[in-house]
Design brief:
mainly alpha; three-stranded antiparallel sheet; Aspartate Aminotransferase, domain 1; 2 domains; Arc Repressor Mutant, subunit A; 233 residues
Length: 233
């Protein structure tokens, strides 16, 4: 029987089983290929998708960018693909006129992570000007600088060092730095995206003001102590 006679008889020609997408789990109604699903899931799961670290998923993203963007847009999420830095990330769409359920929560970096970021961004900027495209830095250098920003309220030296190392671990997981050998890291271009030049200047000014206030308080305390000694004498 021909296809024409099949349609006339009220039947639909069957689709070959090999043309159906295989279920990845019971009840699977997804229509995306497995590699596209994985890339979409990684974008939702991670803060950044990096071309250098996720080469296969990066290629999949570029080959299927339209459909991945469409799926994210259905959830009121915008996809940003930065070809210059080789990374992709997501943004929550917020429109006052629309009652949009917020799926992505902004999780800011902690104070320790921010202090480490400022130092990393400063080193990256300085080394880039000097012609170094992939700056390296040692954990001891990070600790020496960042620990100077801490106060007595941040605990003893061991607690402060742990905070710095935890921050380095978090930034490494985000792809901002990568550990090449024990205690030695390469700073990636992602640091420019996470901490813009404008934000870096703002944070540097804040650190200078904080340091000046601490110095003033320390000098005032020293003067008060000296005056007290004079009274006792």
């Amino acid at each position: 029987m021909t296809s024409d006679s099949t349609e006339e008889a009220g039947f639909i020609a069957p689709v070959a089983m090999e043309d159906d997408l295989a279920e990845l789990f019971p009840g699977d109604r997804g229509v995306l290929d497995p590699e596209v699903r994985r890339t979409l899931a990684l974008i939702l799961h991670r803060r950044f998708l990096l071309a250098e670290r996720n080469r296969q998923e990066w290629r999949t993203l570029l080959d299927n960018q339209t459909v991945i963007e469409s799926r994210l847009n259905d959830l009121y999420i915008r996809l940003v693909v930065d070809h210059e830095h080789g990374l992709a990330y997501k943004q929550q769409i917020r429109i006052e006129e629309l009652d949009i359920p917020i799926l992505l929560r902004d999780t800011p970096y902690t104070r320790s992570e921010t202090l480490v970021l400022v130092h990393l961004r400063t080193v990256y900027e300085r080394e880039n000007v000097a012609g170094e495209a992939a700056p390296r830095i040692d954990i001891e250098d990070v600790e020496q600088t960042v620990l100077s920003y801490f106060t007595d309220a941040d605990g003893d030296i061991s607690r402060r060092q742990k905070a710095v190392r935890d921050a380095m671990r978090k930034l490494s997981n985000d792809g901002i730095i990568s550990e090449e050998t024990t205690g030695r890291y390469r700073i990636g271009p992602l640091v420019e995206v996470v901490l813009s030049a404008e934000k870096l200047t703002e944070l540097r000014d804040w650190l200078r003001e904080t340091a000046a206030e601490r110095l003033g308080a320390s000098e005032a305390a020293a003067d008060a102590s000296e005056a007290l000694e004079d009274v006792r004498a």
